[in-house]
Structures are given as structure tokens and as C-alpha cells.
Amino acid sequence: MTSNRRSKPDVLLDNSDAVYAYYLRHRPNRLQAMAAYALLANRFRPRIVFADGARAQLADLLRSKRPILFALNHLSQRDPYVVAAAAWRSPLRPLIGRVRVLAKDELFLDPDQRRKVDMMGGIPVFRGKDHGIRAVNAAGQQMMDICAERLTTGDHVAVFPEGTCNEVDPARVQSIGSGIGHIAFRATKLGAPPALLCLGISYGPRPDPTVEPTEAEVRSAAFYFRTPVLTLPQRPADIARLTAAELQLAVDGATAAY
After folding, report:
1. Where does the Phospholipid/glycerol acyltransferase domain start and stop, copy by copy (predicted)?
2. pTM for the whole thing?
3. Using CA atoms, how far apart are residues 26 and 52, in angstroms rounded to an integer?
């Protein structure tokens, strides 16, 4: 099933072949993305904090032009706006428009919402929790292949590997799957081994993590950069375990910095 605009297929599970063929090639308008990120940075003003040596190592990594696989914790539906603001206010600004961001498929259903997600470099993810594990298996394989291929073309990929908002304990990273490991593994097989960069977000201590953070808490978020990991394990499961450990250290840093 496709839309009337053949170049832009409907983001539906039974249309995944056309969806991922489209997002293999899709590129956002960088000028529009820059403008949107600048507006978000004016609204949200996250405090940018670096682990010891991380700023210099990140500068070296950016100069190398090596693809980066970003991993971030997920606390709120507003996380993408905070990430965009942090990107504008950090050394990541030159990458705006060149980072593909994995986003749940429901964000692509409303045309206006889809336009915004596309502008921010979104790639749809059909989640097992929404459609059933077996039903999404083939689409998941396609998604990981697309991400790996994008990493070979000068793009970068950002993942919220927890898969859903953390409503248990914002200071503890929840279980992550092996998907991020498979993306890194497949990109390496294609000749584009990515560096791993874990970024932590904190909105401060919240009595009830099931309640979305307030506007004030989001506006003053702490955003923490770990040092980049330049050498990854060979097996996807080991990459995922390393990501979980590094991401927890990033969350610890963000929590302490809030």
C-alpha cells in the first residue's frame, strides 16, 4: 500500500519494502534542519557537560569524518527536541542534517508530524511491542541494513536503544536489545566501522517517572557526552552490552550534572 505520492510511501508495516527503499535515499533539507534546530536551541537550553577528555576526543573524531553511532537514554517524548537543542549548542552542530534518527513508526502517520520527523532525519522503526515480535522481524532486518548502509555514505545514526521511554528509574538505563550491535556489526562488514558515542540526558530527580517532565525541567536538562569508543567488539551482543555500560556512565554523568 502506497500513498498517491509514489515517492513518499505510507509508513505501514505491510509496506516496509517501499518504506525502507525510500529511507535508504531520503535526505532532509539541511538549511531547514539548521533553522529548526536553532529555534529549538533558543527554546531549550540544556547544559552541555563532557567527560574528562571527551571534548578533545570528539573534535578529533569529527575531523576524521568517521561515521558515528550515537546511543541516548530515553526519558520523555520531548527527548528529540532536547537532543536537537544540544546538537546546536555543542560541537555536533556541523552534523545537523547528516544524522539519521530511529523513530517509532507511529510518528510518521500524521502528515505534519511526518514532515517534522523527516526534516530531522527520521528512519521508521516498527517495534515488536506495537506489532508483535514475529510480525516485525523482516522489517527489523531491513531497518538495520538501511542504517548500516547509511553509515557507509557519510551519514551518522542515532538510536534510543532502550526502545521506549524509561518509566521505571530515570537514573538507570533499562534493558537494551542487540539491534544497535547489529547495526554496528553490519556497517563494519560493509567497510564503515562506526565509533560509538553515548550521550546521557537528565531532567533532574522526578518523584514519578511515569509523569512527563515539566517544561521547566526539559528546558534546563543536563546533556552529558561520554568519550567516544573507537574500537568495538566483533559480536553484536557484545557491542550491545558495551553500549549499555557506556550509556549508564553517560546517564550517571548527566544525573550528577543536573
Report:
1. 68-204
2. 0.94
3. 37
